[in-house]
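Section handout, structural biology tutorial.
Before the tutorial, make sure you can parse a SMILES string by hand: atoms, branches in parentheses, ring closures as digits. In the record below the ligand is 2-acetamido-2-deoxy-beta-D-glucopyranose, and the chain has 314 residues. In the tutorial you will relate the predicted C-alpha cells back to the input. Do not try to memorize them.
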Amino acid sequence: TYQEWRNDSAAIHDPLSQLPTPQHPKIRLYNAEQVLSWEPVALSNSTRPVVYRVQFKYTDSKWFMADIMSIGVNCTQITATECDFTAASPSAGFPMDFNVTLRLRAELGALHSAWVTMPWFQHYRNGKRTWTVGPPKNIEVTPGEGSLIIRFSSPFDIADTSTAFFCYYVHYWEKGRTQQVKGPFRSNSISLDNLKPFRVYCLQVQAQLLWNKSNIFRVGHLSNTSCYETMADASTELQQVILISVGTFSLLLVLAGACFFLVLKYRGLIKYWFHTPPSIPLQIEEYLKDPTQPILEALDKDSSPKDDVWDSVS
Ligand SMILES: *[C@@H]1O[C@H](CO)[C@@H](O)[C@H](O)[C@H]1NC(C)=O
Ligand SMILES: *[C@@H]1O[C@H](CO)[C@@H](O)[C@H](O)[C@H]1NC(C)=O
Ligand SMILES: *[C@@H]1O[C@H](CO)[C@@H](O)[C@H](O)[C@H]1NC(C)=O
Ligand SMILES: *[C@@H]1O[C@H](CO)[C@@H](O)[C@H](O)[C@H]1NC(C)=O
Ligand SMILES: *[C@@H]1O[C@H](CO)[C@@H](O)[C@H](O)[C@H]1NC(C)=O
Ligand SMILES: *[C@@H]1O[C@H](CO)[C@@H](O)[C@H](O)[C@H]1NC(C)=O
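Predicted structure of the complex:
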C-alpha cells in the first residue's frame, strides 16, 4: 500500500523549486512521541497559504508519502507546521527499532521548495537525535510501618515487550541525610523497607529503558521529589506503650518522692504555717484535772501515737 514518491535527485533538479525551504526543522522524540516540526515559510506576495509535504523512508527503502494510507497520519499538503506521527493509528508512530529518515518541503500550487532531509533516527537508539525518556507516571506512595510502598506506571507503553523493557530505580533519603539508590526493579511496585518510623523521607523515581537487541539503555528523567512520613512499626508501637507507661510511672514516683522530701525538710516550716497556737486539748485538760476519767483509752482507740504529732498540727 506504500506509495512511491519522486526521488531526491529529481526534486533537486526540478525547475519548479522556487519556494524557500521550511526553516529549522526538528524531530522531537520524548517517550513514545515522534513529532517533526518546522518554521512556516512566509511569502509576502501570496494570498494563498503555503502547504507542506512530509515523506519518510526506512534504511534502504524508497520515499513514501506520510499519509493516512502509509503511516496513518495526514502530512501531505497540510498548513500546520508539524507532523505528529504519534497520532498515527493504529501504529502510533514508526516502530521504535526502525531506522527512519524524514524529509519535508513547502508547496504553493505548482510551485514547491527543495526537500529538506533530516538526519536518520532510530527511536530506541540515541541516533543523531536526542531521545528523552520521561519519569514514571501516576506515582502513588503509601506510608507503611517503617516503610514506603511506591506504585507507578511506566513512562509509556512499549509496543514490543519481547525486546525492550523498563526497569526502575528509586532515589530516596531521610530529610537532611544523604541520598540512597535502590534498584533496578522490573516491577511497577517497589517497597522501601527498614526505614526509621516517624521520619520524613523524600524520593524520586526513575525509569531506564533497555533494548536488548543491541544492549542499548536509556536513562530516564527523575520524577519530581515528593516526601512522606513513615508510620510506626509493630515493635515501635510496643516500645512506645512501654516507654509511656514507664515514663508516667517514674514521673509519679519522682513527684511523690519530691513531695515526701519537701515535707520532711520543711516539716518545721509547714508546722509553723499550719500551726494554731499550742493548747492542751480540752479532753486532756479535763483528764489532767481528773486522771481517774477513762478518757485516755478512748483517745488511744482512734489515734496512733504517730498521729498525735500531726493532730497537734491540725
Ligand atoms: C531518480 O531521479 C533520477 C533523475 O531524475 C533518475 O535518473 C533516477 O532513475 C531516479 N531513480 C529512481 C529510483 O527513481
Ligand atoms: C513573489 O514575487 C517574486 C518577485 O517579487 C516572484 O519571483 C515570486 O515568484 C512570487 N511568488 C509567488 C508565490 O507568487
Ligand atoms: C540508518 O539508515 C541510514 C540510511 O538511510 C544509514 O546511513 C545508517 O547507517 C542507518 N543506521 C543504522 C543504525 O542502521
Ligand atoms: C490532509 O489534510 C489537509 C488539510 O490539512 C486536507 O486538505 C487533505 O484533504 C487531507 N488529506 C487526506 C488524504 O485526508
Ligand atoms: C530480551 O529481553 C526479553 C525480555 O526480558 C527476553 O525474553 C529475551 O530473551 C531477551 N533477548 C535477548 C537477545 O537477550
Ligand atoms: C514537576 O514539577 C514541575 C515544576 O515544579 C511541574 O511543572 C510539573 O508539572 C511537575 N510534574 C509532575 C508530574 O507533577
